[in-house]
Specification:
The chain is built from 10 helices and no strands. Helices cover 59% and strands 0% of the residues. It has 2 domains: 14-64, Orthogonal Bundle (Arc Repressor Mutant, subunit A); 84-197, no CATH class. Helix 1 (14-31) packs across helix 6 (104-110).
Length: 201
């Protein structure tokens, strides 16, 4: 029988957290993100209730772990600052590839309109993106591009960052709808090139 309550010394380690995340991925692939519950994850991961709540507040917090696993603040981009659209595409492809490594079924089920945790992450609060998110880094890159003269001085980096995020979400949904037939990186690059060109100096 599993323990209920706080995790013991042997539970509170990275292995337990990894087991929870792996169980969640498996459940998403089996039944879809909406049907995943904390109880099902606990049973699948074979951990105690206390162990789960040691790491996660609730299901939404658990789902967000796949998005916020790493901060985008210090991620080094290879595309030159002068290639504004290319730099944005590289930034978001880093996130997309992360999900692709979790499996195509995970990505298709995770990127749904019903995933409230993802919707909350890809949104703003009082006109600000949360620190460490891909959107905050996107806005920071756009500000730098404008400061260095690659975008018009009158652009609103926050608004453009919101639009870029919307474009990315559209590409991901289309990729899922076409059962991966769409070349997501090339499509994203092409659309961003067309969109950003309107704001170039």
């Amino acid at each position: 029988m599993k323990k209920i309550g706080r995790p013991g010394k042997n539970d509170a380690n990275r292995e337990c957290k990894d087991a929870i995340l792996k169980a969640t991925i498996a459940l998403i692939e089996e039944i879809g993100a909406d049907a995943v519950t904390v109880r099902k994850v606990i049973e699948k991961a074979d951990v105690s209730t206390g162990t789960f709540y040691h790491y996660f507040v609730d299901k939404n917090d658990l789902m967000m772990a796949f998005v916020r696993e790493e901060s985008f603040d210090a991620f080094e981009l290879q595309t030159p600052v002068s290639d504004v659209a290319g730099r944005q595409a590289e930034l978001y492809m880093h996130l997309i590839r992360r999900y692709q490594t979790l499996g195509k079924d995970f990505m298709k089920r995770f990127y749904t309109t019903d995933n409230q945790a993802l919707s909350a992450y890809l949104d703003e609060t009082i006109g600000q993106f949360a620190e460490g998110t891909v959107m905050a880094r996107s806005e920071k890159e756009l500000k730098t591009s404008a400061e260095q003269g690659y975008l018009s001085a009158s652009v609103d980096p926050h608004l453009i960052a919101m639009d870029v995020c919307t474009i990315v979400k559209g590409c991901v949904f289309e990729w899922c709808l076409t059962n991966e037939r769409m070349e997501i990186e090339q499509t994203l690059q092409r659309i961003l090139d067309a969109y950003i060109s309107a704001y170039k100096r």
